[in-house]
Amino acid sequence: MAQQDDFIRTALRVPPALHKALHESASAANRTFNAEILARLQASFDTAPGEATAALLDQIRELEKKTTQQKLSLIQANNETWRANITLLQMVRLVPTKSIQNDARLFSVVTELQSNADKMLTAGLEKMLVDAGEVQTVVRKRIKDRE
User: Fold this and answer.
1) What's the start-to-end Cα distance of the chain, in Å?
2) pLDDT tens, 101-124?
3) What would the pLDDT profile of 5-35 be if each residue is shown by its tens digit?
4) Most distant CA pair in the chain: distance in Å?
5) Secondary structure, 3-state, the chain
6) Is 146 in contact with 49 (CB distance < 8 Å)?
């Protein structure tokens, strides 16, 4: 255990808000006020800024890689769905128009196919934009937390 001689006593002036935050943080970590200050100061020397930046860049690259993989999967799924819809629409073209109009079930299926094609494209693009926005938010927050 450290002795009193192992430390240098110093006076420190701290703004009231920071003083309060340090006390609250110390209490939450079950440390004394002094131990909290020492832990925070030591942590600032333990990780070199370059290492922290490199770690953040690695996390950003990993998130970008995952996002790209998700986008590719979504594009592939949309392509497969589009191919299936095109095949179905081509098959429908073989059926005389009067037959489609006279058969309520067939007319409903054809109308739904055409409607779904537009909806799927719109929904897929919207999801990609939302995912990209979420990734940007996470990355920005992590960068801000490290600063």
Assistant:
1) 33
2) 777 777 777 777 777 766 766 776
3) 788 888 889 999 999 999 999 999 999 999 9
4) 100
5) CCCHHHCCCCCCCCCHHHHHHHHHHHHHCCCCHHHHHHHHHHHHHHCCHHHHHHHHHHHHHHHHHHHHHHHHHHHHHHHHHHHHHHHHHHHHHCCCHHHHHHCHHHHHHHHHHHHHHHHHHHHHHHHHHHHHHHHHHHHHHHHHHHC
6) no
Distance between CA atoms of 42 and 33, rounded to whole angstroms?
14
Q: Count other C-beta atoms under 10 Å from residue 55's C-beta.
A: 13
- The model carries a pTM of 0.36
Q: Quickly tell me which residue has 């059926």 as its tokens.
A: 95
Categorise residue 31: left if φ over 0, alpha if ψ from -120 to 50, beta otherwise. Answer: beta
User: Tell me, what amino acid is at 126?
Assistant: E
With tokens 């340090």, the residue in question is 22
CA nearest 111: which of 134, 88, 94?
Answer: 88
